[in-house]
Amino acid sequence: MALSKFSFPLATRIEFGEGYLTHAGAEAKKLGIKKAMVIADKGIIACGIVKPIEESLRAEHVDYVIYDQILPNPRDIHCIAGAEFAKEHQIDGMIAIGGGSSMDTAKAVGTLLTNGGNIRTWAAPAQLEHEILPLIAVPTTAGTGSEVTFDAVITDTEAHEKLNILDLKIAPKVALVDPNVLQGLPEKVMSATGVDALVHAVEAYTCKAASPITDAFALYAIDLIGANIREAVYKRTKESCRNMMLGSTMAGVAFGYSDVAGVHCIAEALGGRYDTPHGVSNAMVLSTVTEFNIPAAAEKYAEVARHLGVNTAGMTTEEAAYSCVDAMKSICADVKIPKMRDFDVINPKDFQELAEASFRNMSTPNNPREITVQDYFDLLNKAYNA
Ligand SMILES: [Fe+2]
Fold first, then answer.
1. Could you give the 3-state DSSP secondary structure of residue 209?
2. What number is the average pLDDT over the span 293-315?
3. How far is the CA of 24 from the centre of ligand 1 (A)?
């Protein structure tokens, strides 16, 4: 790929370390926050992760209110409700704790608060008029990477479709990344979110928006995730958690400043329609879409294979590229990702509409290989019958 120009404004300060949850209060104070809206779902609150954050806020005399109306695949109506809650409590900053749902909800709430309108008003390619209130993002999965991206994916409940708000003005000011939070994560969540992070890195590296800087983040992330995902899912060692969290944040930088591609386009269509977990939606179509894409970027997929630990010595570039498909399949099988057919709700009769929704996704033009509605339709059928 001939690329001589790119821009790389890293908008989020990353603070990474074990026990860093307790830095939330000091970080909020540094940002000038006097009353924070702490955004987390009920499950995260119940497992105690928010406690040390609350304590650190109290220790720094930062007032706060908790908002827990967060659902997976966040919807526009919940973001509007969140913005109303924020106005009522006159907050001047946000701390989002959780997976992508909490962080994306916070970005969307922030958008509505300082820009007015509704989610559709600010869906890409629209650009925000004003920065959102200062946001501290605390990821609890390794994962979404949303702590370092300036993208929020929100479901439009009228169109049953996901919309993206994409603007540097929604980037978190601080990503507070504490690998210890992974210790209590259910096995299923660890595996699905871990594969999501891997897909972020692979798509960031292979898509048309890739730059040398995002490539470096992506390949390092693939190294870390490929080598640690199994141990993190089944043994949850400190080292594997550290590496998965770092890999996920680095993959977040990679795709946040590059893009995702066809796998995510289908995954977001599936999630928008059926509410299937995002990481699983990605994993279910990963190998099928990768096989389709390889002819357009064989060198890059061969590199992915090597970074997933495949010994490609003696292979042609093509053989090496296709070997990454087996490496991906083996990861998905080892961490017990379900198949598309395991979801009763997924109906092949919907595939034409899903193909059209996938095609409309703003990341479609960045897929490494040109991809049509018909291609998406064929890939959905192929993945369903795999
Ligand atoms: Fe993702």
1. coil
2. 98
3. 25
